[in-house]
TrEMBL record, chains A, B:
Taxonomic lineage of the native organism: Bacteria, Pseudomonadati, Bacteroidota, Flavobacteriia, Flavobacteriales
Keywords: Hydrolase, Metal-binding, Protease
Species whose genome carries this gene: Aggregatimonas sangjinii
Peptidase M20 dimerisation domain boundaries: 199-358
Annotated protein name in UniProt: Dipeptidase
GO biological process, one term: proteolysis
Record-linked InterPro entries: Bact_exopeptidase_dim_dom (IPR036264), Cyt/Met_Dipeptidase (IPR051458), Peptidase_M20 (IPR002933), Peptidase_M20_dimer (IPR011650)
PANTHER family: BETA-ALA-HIS DIPEPTIDASE, SUCCINYL-DIAMINOPIMELATE DESUCCINYLASE
Entry's Gene Ontology molecular function annotations: metal ion binding; peptidase activity
Pfam families, sorted: M20_dimer, Peptidase_M20
Amino acid sequence: MKNTKEYIATHRNRFIQELIDLLKIPSVSADPAFTQDVLDTAEAVEKALLEAGCDTVEIHETAGYPIVYGEKQIDSSLPTVLVYGHYDVQPADPLELWDSPPYEPVIKKTEIHPEGAIFARGSCDDKGQMYMHVKALEFMVKTDQLPCNVKFMIEGEEEVGSNNLAVFVKEHREKLANDIILISDTGMIANDVPSITTGLRGLSYVEVEVTGPNRDLHSGLYGGAVANPINILTKMIAALHDENNRITIPGFYNKVEELSAEERAEMAKAPFSLEAYQNALDIDSVYGEKGYTTNERNAIRPTLDVNGIWGGYIGEGAKTVIPSKAYAKISMRLVPNQDWPEITELFTKHFEAIAPKGVTVKVTPHHGGQGYVTPIDTIGYQAASKAYETTFGKKPIPQRSGGSIPIVALFEQELGSKTILMGFGLDSDAIHSPNEHFGVWNYLKGIETIPYFYKFFTEMNKG
Amino acid sequence: MKNTKEYIATHRNRFIQELIDLLKIPSVSADPAFTQDVLDTAEAVEKALLEAGCDTVEIHETAGYPIVYGEKQIDSSLPTVLVYGHYDVQPADPLELWDSPPYEPVIKKTEIHPEGAIFARGSCDDKGQMYMHVKALEFMVKTDQLPCNVKFMIEGEEEVGSNNLAVFVKEHREKLANDIILISDTGMIANDVPSITTGLRGLSYVEVEVTGPNRDLHSGLYGGAVANPINILTKMIAALHDENNRITIPGFYNKVEELSAEERAEMAKAPFSLEAYQNALDIDSVYGEKGYTTNERNAIRPTLDVNGIWGGYIGEGAKTVIPSKAYAKISMRLVPNQDWPEITELFTKHFEAIAPKGVTVKVTPHHGGQGYVTPIDTIGYQAASKAYETTFGKKPIPQRSGGSIPIVALFEQELGSKTILMGFGLDSDAIHSPNEHFGVWNYLKGIETIPYFYKFFTEMNKG
């Protein structure tokens, strides 16, 4: 690869402006109120791929939001890279906690991002990281250095479970045929500690509803005499963990992969400061499963978190009511070998079983996905490692992530190829949170590093 | 009293229409969005009292919503009745559960109300029951049968704690001097089983806030490693009851009045069908403190109910977030002898004490009030009993209510007089719930019965 730095320096401001324009469209897939914005974003991605140099770009309609598919074929004898990303974003609420409006991107310097970071919903997850690949393609095409074939598959439902992408993949195995899948939707340890994600957690996301009396009741006239759905819901959720913070669902841990002492020792080598971690979150203590370190708890151990809870009167002031219903959204992060449909079923059975008389319980599965592991001895991993080494000046550390990209396991199953997770974001980028941001340095470093992956992967395939 | 039935029959439709007009004003004291409506309601009450025959009516400004005070003095040697009521109402949400808009009153027949019931927020609690007294006064004045002096004190903050009424009462002891206080803000057992409320529960209402990390976090990257404020809040709330559904707050039961076997046997005589109770609420079982019946649980035993809970993502679809904060509104119903400020302090200390490391807890007291008991051997109770006997044809049953009218205990303390609770609503009227209603029969029966109380109370005072 020649002149990567020069090309990026020359087009730096345009690269940033194009991303900012994309971030201005509130493509929230979880909320029907933003339907048109999500559709507009798909068209913006189509346009960007064409301008970057794709020969053909199609917008594939699905039962949900469309999938943008583009490709640049140069020689069928050369390997093919399939780039996956998503153009939808998480909801931005709570809005009041944003220092600047989530869809009015601004660049501000931070301690970790002295060159400035772009603050906006989706800046890192995943519009910013997806767009690095679009600009990397532009560089390779415009400078005649694209060493292999490339396909892009950018979806609009990653934040709501990718159900329609799964259908699309199963129906287009040939079109999507590839030698390696490349995704930037994860993070790295630090700007001076590059890392490659080699493991992802699975996910089971459910919504529960507890119903007591057939109507809201006066807590004076009925208080103490009937089951209060909120009190019951808190009891039931509390019962899902034991005193060691282990999940109490029967069978939940049956298939959990237990790492060897060696593997855990290897993981422990990654630089980590518990004090810095706690300070960054303003907490006086971490909290989790007994017997595991913080990095183990959020990477190799399954979890159960309530992501939302509501019931009764939540407005201003006071209302003395016993509500008819109480609700919660609950997600379980799973580790390799745990099967998400099975876990969803175990949860449902158990949750129904622990409901006391006086209430009825409904569990509605939302979505889920399997965990995933990338072996570090593959050509794909080696090519990525060499690419980071070239642009960062040091070998990246293989790292398990606690996050989930449910579709990755399905890619391997349906397309038979491995996925390389080249993430350039940082944990502190606040994805899924108010004030999400993505470092300008990280954005440009990604655009610089990605072409080297194409180069080394193509060379390693020949040799 | 002469011609009560005739007068009511003649003016029936106007009495109903006037109440409907009052119910159209959404006087929700808990929600600042309705400020002007609450103020408009105060003026409507002022107008109604003047038209009913009060000599003077004043709107007393307070730090919150005004108190409407009116009086009709006929002879200082005669006894004085002080009527208390409130013109504010509970919030109407959840609006989607109303069969007709809460502030567009409609009259519909029901099984229990064959003559029809007025459906609207506040129809029973307390606009409808308060207005019975206004119309009873009109009858006595227009027919020259008012046997004693009468004072009206109608406030606009009962649903939010009556804090400013307490100040008003302390500052106007002389103005409010009376021989008996009369309130219709409770219910009776059934239209053919009249009852008088002789006991009220106290109340302590608090709001709690649990804070974990300083921002919302991605549940994949942080799940399992940090305390999730929602999970913690459910654990803490669940821990407030033991396996027998007794409240675990140290000292909570210290001052609870334990009724004798005789008193409990007397209470048990009130007609009650557990099956009918469960069917009316569509529940397969009641739920409460071990060792007590349903009627005991909601009348003579203290309780702790969550009235509202919220945290995390509660919108459409799914969001994998660990929120920074989770909240709950919690109210405790207290029994006579329990001191609400003391209970509020015990709750606060305990709730802070059971917070695990990794979160901080904030408890904000909302409001509260003491419990109350009316002895049945007083002239006031006897006069009320005789009034019911006259219009219902049978002796009313003395009954403890689970509800709270915090101000009643303060009346006795500051004004030195007892309160008679002549309620004409039914538990099934759904006060504080969607589709609140008040039977037309009950409304008119109240207007018919109240004048007899004035008559008998005045006679018993002379004799």
